[in-house]
Amino acid sequence: MFGSRQQQQRQGRQQLAVAARARDPDALDDDVNPEEVNKEPPSLFWRCFSALCYLVPWIDSISLGRHMYAKFRNLLLIYFAPGPMAKIYFGSQFAPLIIFFVMFLSIVKNTKLHHFVRFNCMQAIMLDIVVMLFHILRAYLPAELKWSIIGHYFDMFGWTCCMGTVLYAVFWTVRGYYADIPFVSESVYHQVQLSEYA
């Protein structure tokens, strides 16, 4: 009788172990509240996935730094890091638009994903918009300014701001913290919350 009881306990533990291995850790059960899941820290996979979203503003800000790469050769590592992804991103004139919609509709609006992932994806989109504003301002500068020393300094300032912000966000994202960027993060937080109700 005592031996059969131990055997039943072992079988119960084995069944629990098999059930624990077979369960998808990112899947939400019907009785689990999504707010409770979001209280847990993100896994290493989701942190790295969130950091990869920042490749979009990184790739867009590369062209602002051509004068920086000429002055500081060590910064060429930043230029070559997203190389294969840059070919895909600039492969077609519609690729940036398609990537924007894929990121926004499949990640930001997906409430099954961790809030950390959705927040960082939306923040990467907002940073990309800021980088595009630098490109637009540069395009509408008069030719006398665009090709003068003022244009060079404008490009270097834009590249330093954009790349510094992207690297700051990637650093804190990989560590598992929300990267707080003034003015941007607050609007990103509101946008992510609004996407839950849309």
Can you summarize this structure?
With 198 residues, this protein is mostly helical. It has helices at residues 2-22, 34-39, 44-52, 55-61, 66-71, 76-80, 83-89, 95-108, 115-139, 143-146, 149-175, 184-197. It has twelve helices and no strands.
Q: Average pLDDT value? A: 84
The number of strands is: 0
Class per helix and strand makeup: mainly alpha
How much of the sequence lies in strands comes to under 5%
Rg of Cα set: 23 Å
How far is it from the N-terminal to the C-terminal residue, by CA?
60 Å
The run of helices and strands is: HHHHHHHHHHHH
- Based on CA inertia axes, which overall geometry fits? elongated
Largest sheet: none
The low-confidence parts are 16-26
Number of helices: 12
Q: Helicity level, as a percent range?
A: over 70%
- Tell me the domain tally: 1
Transmembrane segments: 44-68, 88-108, 120-141, 153-174
InterPro entries: Tic20
Region (Disordered): 1-36
Family: Belongs to the Tic20 family.
Note down, in words, how this protein is organized.
The longest helix has 27 residues. About 5% of the residues have low confidence. This protein is an all-alpha fold and about 200 residues long. The protein has one domain. The N and C termini lie far apart (about 60 Å).
Name some characteristics of this structure.
single chain, 12 helices, elongated
Question: What's the structural blueprint in terms of helices and strands?
Answer:
Blueprint: H1 2-22, H2 34-39, H3 44-52, H4 55-61, H5 66-71, H6 76-80, H7 83-89, H8 95-108, H9 115-139, H10 143-146, H11 149-175, H12 184-197
Helix pairs in contact: 3-9, 3-11, 4-9, 4-11, 8-9, 9-11, 9-12
